Amino acid sequence: MTNEAELSFEAAMAELELVVNQLERGDVPLEQAIELFQRGMKLSQLCNHKLEQVERKIEIIVEEDGAYRKQAFGGMEEEGGVSL
């Protein structure tokens, strides 16, 4: 198991999938199942956090008065119409 701060989204999802597969098999001792569940929850939260970070960076193009400009996903905009 790797430190969460070092994991990419893809690596966290892959590890989460392994954890889920182990739990679904149902052949792990109770104590190990609890540890796996806790690890899975941490990985799930990490993936959610990473997705939220990406969501904030997504830019959408909006039309305003016949012109197009970039706008951050949440509507936040930098000076000059260039988004964050």
Give a topology summary:
Layout: H1 9-25, H2 30-57, E1 59-64, E2 67-72
Antiparallel strand pairs: 1-2
Helix pairs in contact: 1-2
Give a written overview of the molecule.
It is a single chain. Helix content is 54%, strand content 14%. With 84 residues, the protein is α+β, with helices and mostly antiparallel strands. It has a two-stranded antiparallel sheet with strand order 1-2. Strand 1 (59-64) and strand 2 form a beta hairpin. Mean pLDDT is 81; it is low at 78-84. It has helices spanning 9-25, 30-57; strands at residues 59-64, 67-72. The chain is rod-shaped, with a radius of gyration of 20 Å. Helix 1 packs antiparallel against helix 2 (30-57). The chain has two helices and two strands, in the order ααββ.
In short:
The chain is α+β, with helices and mostly antiparallel strands. It is built from 2 helices and 2 strands.
| Quaternary form | single chain
Shape: rod-shaped
Number of strands: 2
Intertermini distance: 34 Å
Class from helix and strand fractions:
alpha+beta
Radius of gyration: 20 Å
- Report the uncertain regions: 78-84
- How helix-rich are the residues, as a percent range? 40-55%
Walk across the major sheet and give the strand order. Answer: 1-2
What is the mean predicted local confidence, pLDDT?
81
SSE sequence, one letter per element: HHEE
Biggest sheet record: 2 strands, antiparallel
Number of helices: 2
- Beta-strand percentage? 5-15%
GO molecular function: exodeoxyribonuclease VII activity
Subunit structure: Heterooligomer composed of large and small subunits.
InterPro entries: Exonuc_VII_S, Exonuc_VII_ssu_sf
Organism: Paenibacillus gallinarum
